[in-house]
């Protein structure tokens, strides 16, 4: 049973305990209420700070995205300069060949786009340059794999024409993968903000 404050005061003063003890008792009685007020206010402050930090993080990511895209394209072009061909065994060339075949792309930018003559291997140029009748590396041919790529060298149906090759540049493919995973991160962060807002509200 909860005793009302005026009644409690009369009981204490009648007993001769005095108003000092009354104040102490009322402080003890009201302490849980005060604690709840303080902890609720603290939670709200921390939640607001956390939400602001998440918002700043997303804003910074969006602001540097364009610069990051330019940096990525530039780095890929620098690496492609050291490409030595579809049958080269060095790590750089091997990495590019695997990327061409697995990601189904060729070079960094789109190759021979819209029937044009532009290709990264000639324009950079790369260590491997179109020689003889081959205009593109055999690893850019559709259907080529690590075990069959040599059969596509000097192919009249791919590297010589060129035709039946992956026209999309690897930059756009890599950027697509990065954007996909970045979108997942943004959705997760946004969901976290919504949950915190709801928890703060209720």
TrEMBL record:
Principal location class: membrane
Pfam families recorded: Tetraspanin (PF00335)
UniProt entry tagged with the keyword Transmembrane helix: yes
Transmembrane spans: 7-25, 37-64
Entry-linked InterPro entries: Tetraspanin/Peripherin, Tetraspanin_EC2_sf
Top-rank taxon, per record: Eukaryota
Keyword Transmembrane part of the UniProt annotation: yes
Localization of this protein: Membrane
Keywords: Membrane, Transmembrane, Transmembrane helix
Record membrane topology: Multi-pass membrane protein
Protein name: Tetraspanin
Species in which this protein is naturally found: Mya arenaria (Soft-shell clam)
Lineage, uppermost ranks: Eukaryota, Metazoa, Spiralia, Lophotrochozoa, Mollusca
